[in-house]
Amino acid sequence: MEIKDYGADPIEDGMFRMVPSGDIVTYEERCKRLPDKQHSKNDCLGMSWEELAQKQGGLNTLDITRRKK
Question: Is the dihedral of CA 60, 65, 67, 69 positive or negative?
Fold first, then answer.
């Protein structure tokens, strides 16, 4: 049974570790494997920082330096 990745964690040198497979891929390969996700180089587990903050309790949990005005 093939593992379907649902997210990616950024790691050094512009590479990404796919979740849950653990494959290390380029940004381009990450975009191919996650076609239904909005892609940003500034994300975590396939979510933007804003989406992650919402899942953790709202944008007030997001670091003030990252908030859009």
Answer: positive
* CA-based end-to-end distance of the chain: 45
Contact between 27 and 34 under an 8 Å Cβ cutoff? The reply is no
Tell me how far apart the 2 most distant CA atoms of the chain are, in Å: 45
Q: Which residues of the chain have pLDDT under 50?
A: none
Amino acid at 63: D
Instruction: Find out whether 14 and 8 touch, Cβ atoms under 8 Å.
Output: no
Give strand ranges (E) for the chain: 7-10, 16-19, 24-25, 43-44, 47-48
What's 62's DSSP letter? S
* Residues 15 and 24 sit within 8 Å (Cβ to Cβ): yes
The pLDDT value given to residue 61: 55
